[in-house]
Design brief:
The chain is an alpha+beta fold. The protein has helices at residues 25-40, 129-142, 153-172, and strands at residues 45-47, 57-60, 75-86, 89-93, 103-107, 110-116, 122-128. The structure holds 2-phenylethyl (2E)-3-(3,4-dihydroxyphenyl)prop-2-enoate and cobalt (II) ion.
């Protein structure tokens, strides 16, 4: 079932999400709903707070070389912790909670992610490139941060102006 997405400037997106303690059927149902929401919205990643639930859960589906998003490639990440961050990478990021805006953002190039899967099993993976960018973007959501907060002052001002203009257009139509 597709869930409604919380969009900027909704204050809910600033909340710090809480650790998951129960890896039960209701969590599994929620993860399935997050997947439907992400796929139907053409997303690569989604954090629980973006569908109005403040728990430390995110999902990622990075397309393969053919640009296909398959369910086997889906990463369900619960209570994530980052370590061994190295290097820098600039990537043009977007966000389902900031629709139609894309900006170049600098992140770590490589990192180690430690997390729990839906059954509460601990996993450790190494990530680089787009996967590394996506992990950092989604973990920022768990800490109440959006990618637009990383923009330099001038670009942030320009964004706010254009975003407000777009929202006015939306309310008129
Ligand atoms: C986060 O972003 C991310 O504006 C996921 O109109 C960002 O799925 C991961 C989207 C950069 C890796 C690199 C955005 C869809 C989707 C929009 C998304 C839109 C429709 C964004
Ligand atoms: Co986002």
């Amino acid at each position: 079932m597709k869930l409604p997405i919380v969009v900027y400037p909704n204050k809910r997106l600033k909340e710090i999400s809480k650790e998951v303690t129960e890896f039960d059927a209701s969590l599994h149902k929620f993860l399935d709903d997050m997947y439907d929401t992400m796929i139907e919205s053409n997303g690569l990643g989604l954090a629980a707070i973006q569908v109005d639930v403040a728990i430390r859960v995110l999902i990622l589906s990075i397309p393969d070389e053919e640009g296909e998003q398959s369910y086997d490639e889906l990463l369900e990440v619960i209570n994530p912790v980052l370590s061994n961050m190295t290097g820098t990478i600039v990537y043009q990021e977007g966000c389902l909670s900031v629709p139609t805006f894309y900006e170049d953002i600098e992140r770590y190039e490589k990192l180690t992610l430690t997390y729990f899967d839906r059954h509460g099993k601990k996993n450790v993976i190494e990530a680089e490139g787009l996967l590394s960018v996506a992990i950092q973007h989604e973990i920022d959501h768990l800490n109440g941060k959006l990618f637009i907060e990383k923009l330099p002052y001038g670009r942030r001002k320009k964004f706010e102006k254009e975003y407000k203009k777009l929202q006015k257009q939306k309310t008129r139509s």
